[in-house]
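Researcher: Next sequence.
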Amino acid sequence: MLYFTFQSSRMIHVSNRRSLHYQHGAFTDLVFYTVVFLALMNSCRAQSEVIVPSQPVVSLVGEDVILPCHLDPVMNAFDITVEWARPDLNPRFVLLWRQGEELKTIKHPSFSGRTSVFIDELEKGNVSLKLSKVKVSDEGGYKCCLL
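Model: Next structure:
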């Protein structure tokens, strides 16, 4: 399982691998899960506060997960720049939305075809990221920023 948690003040990047043993009849399966802390480094837009959950978001490897992020007060984010990034990667962009479209050419290759925003929700201030087919390599600190 991958655990995604958030904090709103500063970046925290903690990696903690643990194993769980599950009993299935005569067999014991060893299952690895990854704890991932996702936090905002700084709010990049002064007009709205970026809001993220205080409880963990949990996903199994191979499933889709939504990393919630919205603006308060609500503002239309369709025509502004929304950046989802992993500062530890090069290039750092997980998704970059600018002027009504995603800029796919500067996205980190490991996220190609696996990230999206909810286009119909951007005008309501919902800038959440959908990450499809979660991989163990998705572990890391994520940044949601509006420019």
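Model: The chain has one helix and 13 strands. Confidence is low (pLDDT under 50) at residues 5-31, 39-43.
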